[in-house]
């Protein structure tokens, strides 16, 4: 089960430099968007992911892929291949912000995701001011939607 909230971010409003935190290079593509079936290269790791319907709360299953399988499936992807750099920033209450800085034709989009241990905590969470508009309930900012958007 994945429980997360998603926010737009303006890099000029950050009270820190993302480059001071660990980063990963992510490339991902979608084989299907209903249901969501995604392949992802995360640095040198490769995954196939299934996500159920939902906004803040959804089922998510990750299966490891070989590099060869990933590149074979990449040829079958629909829509754009999404590339981004993900910075992992610790915040209060043992939580982490995954700050995604999109590249290519999705730049200058920047999104932040926070995963929560339960739904009540997620609903009650008061985001810091540098996290701008809460887009958790907007499918426009799902990566699966971004893969199809012109």
Description:
By secondary structure, the chain is mostly beta strands. It has a single domain, classed as Hypothetical Protein Pfu-838710-001, CATH 2.40.320.10. The chain has helices spanning 67-74, 119-124, 143-146, and strands spanning 2-9, 23-33, 36-42, 45-51, 57-58, 60-64, 78-90, 96-102, 110-115, 131-134. Strands 1, 2, 3, 4, 5, 6, 7, 8, 9 and 10 form a 10-stranded antiparallel beta sheet that branches. A hairpin with a 2-residue loop joins strand 2 and strand 3. The model has no long low-confidence stretch (mean pLDDT 96). This is Adenylate cyclase. Residues 1-148 form the CYTH domain. It comes from [Ruminococcus] torques ATCC 27756.
**What's the number of helices?**
3
Major beta-sheet overview: 10 strands, antiparallel
Rounded radius of gyration (Å): 15 Å
Structural shape: globular
Helix content: 10-25%
Low-pLDDT segments = none
Find the CATH superfamily.
Hypothetical Protein Pfu-838710-001
The percentage of residues in β strands lies in over 45%
The number of distinct structural domains comes to: 1
